[in-house]
Design goal:
- Helix 10 runs parallel beside helix 11.
- The strands form 6 sheets. Strands 7, 8, 9, 10, 12, 13, 15, 16, 20 and 21 form a 10-stranded antiparallel sheet that branches. Strands 22-23-24-27-28-29-30-31 form an 8-stranded parallel barrel, surrounded by 5 helices. Strands 6, 11, 14, 17, 18 and 19 form a 6-stranded antiparallel sheet that branches.
- By secondary structure, the chain is of the alpha+beta class.
- Helices cover 19% and strands 30% of the residues.
- The structure holds alpha-D-galactopyranose (GLA).
- Alpha-D-galactopyranose binds next to loops.
């Protein structure tokens, strides 16, 4: 017989109020609540509730993840039992973090082999504690000395949960880890779910895909050693028929890891969605010696009831507040010039100075010298590894150029690709054993280069000291950190039978170098780049200030690339350049206006050969750069509404950015082609304050399009919308709405 439950009030003990008192409105609470008697743990943040609880057999079960529930609502773990002889209790029970044992047939949190060959791992609840604002729940194997600590925190602003796991060997014999996730997650069954993910290839990153989840396991992974241009360590799950861009439920997750990763999702035997995300178990193994622990990466998990757009905005906000260095104090991205598409390897002090002079006149704020300044780097066959200034190209070192750039009022940036080496380099000649390799086997090259084995501490220390020295000796404000191939022979001969840990040690050392450089050089900013967008994830995002989105700089392709990118990641870090035409990637010629309007939707950069620009081009660029400076805070820090997406198949697409205080809105409408004297639909804006009046102006100057009023209420812009009759191919238009202060009387104050 089930005993009558005592009143919830008596059973409830609030062990941590991270933010507010209990009198604060529920939607502003970020807290962890523990119901000691029932062993139920509840996290509340923004408008999200997440709950887990221990059942009578000791399994830690996921109980709820969705819109916030009222205080004291009943949440109890159900009794775990077998479904049939074929589906034992341990497998049937959705576990918050499952050990591979008891016939589990979905992806586990942890799979190990003990020293006696046993591979049965059954994790049950042991204890909990609070560590600051984080809840730590300890699970232990039912008999062996192995524990897993699950760590949880919830963000008050967005309800995004940060999870991670730590496995510890508390015994006397080594344990082999074969698979280790940061989190398992479960969604209730009896409904249809759709999985959204992003994939691509070099110069064609960030394509959105969607598949209906089914019993067929869907795996999003990288086996490349690095994240790569393929699948992203991000996913979102929606309900077809209920979820749109701006409405309906979306659960999303991202792994903060820049190496080989694995996210998997499937429906189980009763239709529940089972998700696992962590290190990729492919080719991975880790020996956990007595007393040792291994941490998983962080896994961020969020929920929105406002569709895919709402999910993106919540995650953008979380990234800006909690992930990117400096958080809310992070500086806005300066307008950047980069020499790569202009000069390629033909870099000289004189040539760069000329470009810098021209860039400064346009209003550029940061000048970056790309590949070609070091070693014998005259093409991509030599020089990587030798991070000393090429004396033929820079006879007096970098100083005269850096001084000139500074005198022109710009900060100075430099390109590096620290993890790589060409065979034709002094470094490789001195240390051929420093690259990833299997002895006696070919060393496959990619772009004529090999990958240094950063897992080795001597390689890590070498790179750190070389970079540190360059930064100490030169007044450099920014580095572009590139990575232009993936792993082929992931061997680490010196580590012998332990070498499969290279996947984790390599990335941990990469993070160590980045963190150490930031510590030793406060104010230094770093861009993550890997042949464009091959290494962007919420792990590296925590150590870098911006990301090079794609080597594809065609402004039309970019609209789709930026649309996909922003599904997962914030425009705050998304760099976009205006480059020359015909574009290198596809030969397309577009107007300078169109190129600017496309690139202004993220962090604006110029990557063109300015020597070839006419004075009319300069004038156009100056005008757009000035206009950008007036809206960049909204673009970089605001809320993004993808009003008409490239995936909608429309010829005209539109994005709208709204500043956090809703005082400014910026619309970009971009048209691929005019067709059949198009019938224009009104574009309805979003995210404005319906009661405030907003004055409209055309971005960059000029007249508002026909029929667009010069001022109207937020409600008007959102319900009536604007009809933008664009004519021609590859044309665009920007429009800025500015609120007339807090005055709600309808009178404009300016
Ligand atoms: C990669 C980057 C480019 C450029 C080149 C230099 O492809 O994505 O922007 O830096 O390397 O070799």
């Amino acid at each position: 017989m089930t005993p009558a439950l005592p009143s919830f009030r008596r059973r409830l003990s609030v062990v941590a109020l991270a933010i507010a008192s209990t009198t604060a409105p529920q939607t502003l609470l970020a807290k962890v609540t523990v119901d000691e008697a029932n062993k139920v743990f509840r996290l509340d943040g923004a408008d999200v509730t997440y709950a887990i609880g221990v059942d009578e057999k000791g399994y830690l079960q996921p109980l709820y993840w969705g819109s916030s529930l009222g205080k004291g609502e009943p949440l109890l773990a159900r009794a775990s039992k077998e479904l049939s002889g074929f589906d034992p209790a341990g497998m049937q029970t959705a576990q918050e973090f499952a050990g591979q044992g008891e016939g589990l047939v979905t992806d586990p949190g942890l799979k190990v082999t003990f020293s006696d060959g046993s591979r049965d791992l059954v994790l049950k609840y042991r204890s909990y504690r609070m560590d600051g604002q984080s809840l730590v729940v300890e699970l232990a194997d039912i008999e062996r000395p192995l524990t897993v600590n699950l760590r949880y925190a919830i963000d008050e602003q967005t309800g995004v949960i940060t999870r991670s796991a730590t496995v510890t060997n508390r015994g006397r014999a080594p344990i082999k880890i074969e698979s280790f996730a940061a989190a398992n997650l479960t969604l209730p069954g009896a409904t249809t779910y759709q999985l959204h993910f992003l994939s691509g290839r070099h110069a064609a990153e960030w394509s959105p895909h969607a598949v209906v989840l089914s019993p067929a396991l869907t795996v999003l992974e990288s086996r490349r050693g690095s994240v790569g241009h393929g699948n992203q360590p991000w996913l979102a799950i929606s309900r077809p028929g209920q979820t749109t861009e701006e409405s309906g439920p979306v659960w999303f997750g991202a792994l903060a890891w820049s190496g080989s990763f694995r996210l998997s999702a499937q429906t189980d035997n009763i239709g529940r969605v089972r998700i696992a995300g962590g290190y990729n178990s492919h080719d991975f193994a880790w020996t956990l010696r007595p007393g040792e622990s291994l941490d998983s990466p962080r896994f961020y998990a969020g929920y929105s009831s406002s569709g895919l757009g709402g999910a993106s905005r919540a995650f953008h906000r979380f990234q800006m507040d909690q992930v990117i260095p400096g958080g809310r104090q992070a500086k806005l991205r300066p307008v950047l010039y980069n020499s790569w598409e202009a000069t390629a390897f033909d870099v000289t002090a004189e040539g760069q100075m000329k470009l810098a002079e021209r860039a400064a006149k346009l209003g550029v704020e940061r000048f970056v010298v790309d590949d070609g300044w070091f070693g014998q780097r005259n093409d991509d066959k030599a020089g990587l590894g030798d991070w000393t200034v090429n004396p033929a190209k820079f006879p007096q070192g970098l100083k005269p150029l850096i001084d000139r750039v500074h005198a022109l009022g710009m900060s100075f940036g430099l390109w590096f690709e620290p993890e790589m080496v060409n065979r034709d380099s002094a470094l490789y000649r001195a240390h051929p054993d420093w690259v990833l390799n299997f002895p006696g086997r070919p060393r496959t090259e990619g772009r004529n280069q090999l990958v240094l084995n950063l897992a080795r501490t001597d390689v890590r220390d070498h790179l750190l000291s070389v970079l540190d020295k360059l930064l100490r000796e030169n007044d450099i404000q920014f580095i572009k950190w590139d990575y232009n191939r993936n792993w082929t022979e992931p061997g680490w001969p010196e580590a012998g039978p332990d070498q499969q840990r290279v996947y984790v040690d390599y990335i941990s050392n990469l993070y160590h170098i980045l963190a150490e450089l930031r510590k030793r050089h406060p104010g230094l900013e770093i861009e993550t780049c890997s042949g464009g967008g091959g290494r962007i994830d919420t792990g590296i995002m925590g150590l870098t200030d911006q990301a090079w989105t794609s080597d594809n700089t065609d402004p039309y392709d970019r609209l789709a690339i930026q649309d996909g990118f922003t599904m997962a990641y914030a425009p705050a870090v998304m760099m976009a350049w205006v480059t020359d035409v015909p574009n290198w990637a596809n030969g397309r010629t577009t107007s300078l206006d169109f190129r600017f309007l496309s690139a202004m939707q993220g962090g604006l950069g110029i990557g063109a050969d300015l020597n070839k620009w006419t004075s009319a081009d300069d004038e156009t660029a100056r005008n757009w750069i000035e206009a950008y400076k007036g809206i960049r805070e909204t673009v970089q820090r605001g809320q993004l509404y993808r009003l008409v997406r490239p995936t909608d198949g429309a010829s005209q697409t539109a994005t709208f950015y709204v500043s956090p205080d809703r005082s400014q809105g910026v619309l970009f409408a971009m048209q691929r082609s005019s067709e059949w004297r198009d019938q224009w639909e009104a574009t309805k804006l979003a995210g404005l304050d319906p009661a405030r009046r907003y004055r409209a102006r055309r971005l960059g100057g000029g007249q508002l399009p026909d029929g667009v009023p010069s001022a109207a209420s937020g409600a008007y812009w959102m319900s009536h919308g604007v009809t933008l009759r664009l004519r021609g191919d590859y044309v665009g238009l920007g429009m800025v709405l500015e609120a007339a202060g807090a005055d709600q009387s309808g009178n404009l104050r300016h």
